[in-house]
Amino acid sequence: MSRAIEDDVSRTRDEGAVVDVRGLTVRLTETGDDIVHDISFTIGRGEVLALVGESGSGKSTVASALLGHCRPGARISDGSVFVAGTDLLRLSSAKLRAQRGAVVAMVPQDPSAALNPALRLKIQLRELIEVHEPAAANDEVDNRIVEALQDVRLPSDQRFLRRFPYQISGGQQQRILIAMAFMLQPALVVLDEPTTGLDAISTAHLLNLLQDVCRRRGAAVLHVTHDLTVARASADRVLVMYGGRAVELGNAQQVLSAPQHPYTARLVDAQPSVTERRRLEVIAGEPPLPGRRPSGCAFRTRCELSSEICATEEPLLRAISDVQVVACHHNVEARSAGPELLEAAAQRDSVTPVLRVTSLEVGYGRRTVLSGITFDVAPGECLAVLGESGAGKSTLGRAIAGLEASTAGTIELDGETLDPQSSRRRQPHRLAIQYVFQNPFGSLNPRKTVDQILRKVLVSARRVSPTVTEDELVDVLNRVSLASTARWRLPRELSGGERQRVAIARALLCQPRVLVCDEVTSALDVSVQAGIVELLRSLQTSIDLATVFVTHDLGVVSSLADRVVVLDRGRIVETGNSDALIGDPQADFTRRLVGAAREVTA
């Protein structure tokens, strides 16, 4: 462990640290290759430490280790994890189970998967207390449940408590998990991407809620996130990881505004901004896998500052100020010029639209989900559909693709009215509007290689002879910047960004006129997200592709979209040029949405 980290540990412990991680190393059981190596940090009472980095950097491995857990095929080979004075790694299985929930709690990314769908909320809340405190009286348990729900601003009446998880919104489910995490007053709470998939209003509310509860309860918090704006808004300090190593640690505002490691600087440049229309900087290459890390500095193969010493010596963390330590051989005095600013979003000319939606309505039974939706999209234009969770954004995208039958209104493609259901549309129309799902892993056949998945589109959908598909397959893989080796892999052997590129490549092989993208960047880390955004931007200009981009991320909207449609409870409340709408929103709801996004990024 470096001297800088020792100083940081000692400093924070003197101020009342409740979490002390030293020399944490996790290895693959079979090969002995390390997943994370020599990770050390502390977290004080009421302090939030954000853990950031690309997918594969080891964030989730570290988070799991704080609960004394390792995924199958891995083992904690070295180090200590002290929480409230107890080394969790030295406990028996029975004692460790007793610590989970009572001393260390976790808020997972997907609340719907964490809550039991067959049990009412009250039963699940009561069970948590009764398991850890079986002697607690019924009245005391009920009072603590009411107090926990009030802490997270949820109703505490019996009518609410009798609901099942599926009867409340996703945001309410997430708050139930936060209430459960803090209910036993644990010393440490681990947050695993709790804001992924949430709109700006929900994210701002959740972050304020977490900070408030954390401070009042005095818990230490480890917040795992890929979103640097969320890290800046929620954390006191930030630990940046790459290749299973700690590369930068310090005050959150200092690290994310003036990063001193080239990797951190590139992450900051890849982050979209609500206030600037910028080209997102993609970090070339991929993070190294365990056992395949280069000698010396793990980041050197992707770093523009790499020199001879980087290839031979692994850099150690060193202090560069009272609030910042960095592992780099070079003195990065300041960031580079930063990302390139783009021209303002194009104003609409008198271009004949390729897609026109008029007075569209979609409902389920007696419930109306979308009403009076009218807009059009021109060739080469990106139209963003923005709104809160549950506003009807995904329903609108699915209706355009014919995956959600509309009950009224029309959808026209090049002036020709389409049948509401895709199965009844003519083959050219089905090919002309392609839908890219949020979760590419769920939309790609897990038993087929990328080559087989893409080749099927040409042979089955477009009726192209198998003997003439090779050139087109090579061309589309190049267009989406996929390595040729990816062609022979199964979806599970690809990263999240690679799978999303395969899904886009499959759509492009249909030679579409319109591409509907449903939250395609929401679960991706900033570098991979930047690559997908820049890919979509290039497609708009190179093949005049019209894009309907369903999203909750105003930063991505600012970077990519030409125009924006804002949905609130199934109706359009505002539409216009993206720069004008974000810069000076007119509708009350849009002002709330933009204000919340600015609050998170401030």
Spell out the key features of this protein:
single chain, 602 residues, alpha/beta, Rossmann fold, 8-stranded mixed β-sheet, 6-stranded mixed β-sheet, globular, disordered N terminus, transport, ABC transporter ATP-binding protein, nucleotide-binding, ABC_transp_ATP-bind, ATP hydrolysis activity
Structural commentary:
With 602 residues, this protein is an alpha/beta fold. It has 3 domains: 3-103 and 186-326, P-loop containing nucleotide triphosphate hydrolases (Rossmann fold), CATH 3.40.50; 111-185, no CATH class; 355-601, Rossmann fold, CATH 3.40.50.300. The protein contains 23 helices and 22 strands. Strands 6-7-8-3-9-10-12-11 form an 8-stranded mixed beta sheet, with helices on both faces. Helix 6 (138-151) crosses helix 8 and helix 12 (262-270) packs across helix 20. The longest helix has 18 residues, at 200-217.
Beta-strand percentage? Answer: 15-25%
The strand line-up of the biggest sheet is 6-7-8-3-9-10-12-11
Largest sheet, if any?
A: 8 strands, mixed
CATH uppermost class of the largest domain: Alpha Beta
Terminal residue distance? 34 Å
The CATH architecture category of the largest domain equals 3-Layer(aba) Sandwich
The shape, in one word, is globular
Helix content: 25-40%
Helical region count?
23
Q: Count of DSSP E strands? A: 22
Number of domains: 3
Indicate the low-confidence ranges by residue numbers: 1-14
The structural class is alpha/beta
By CATH, the topology of the largest domain is Rossmann fold
Q: What's the average pLDDT?
A: 88
Q: For the CA atoms, what is the radius of gyration?
A: 25 Å
The CATH homologous superfamily name of the largest domain equals P-loop containing nucleotide triphosphate hydrolases
Pfam family, one: ABC_tran
Protein name: ABC transporter ATP-binding protein
GO biological process, one term: transmembrane transport
GO molecular function, one term: ATP binding
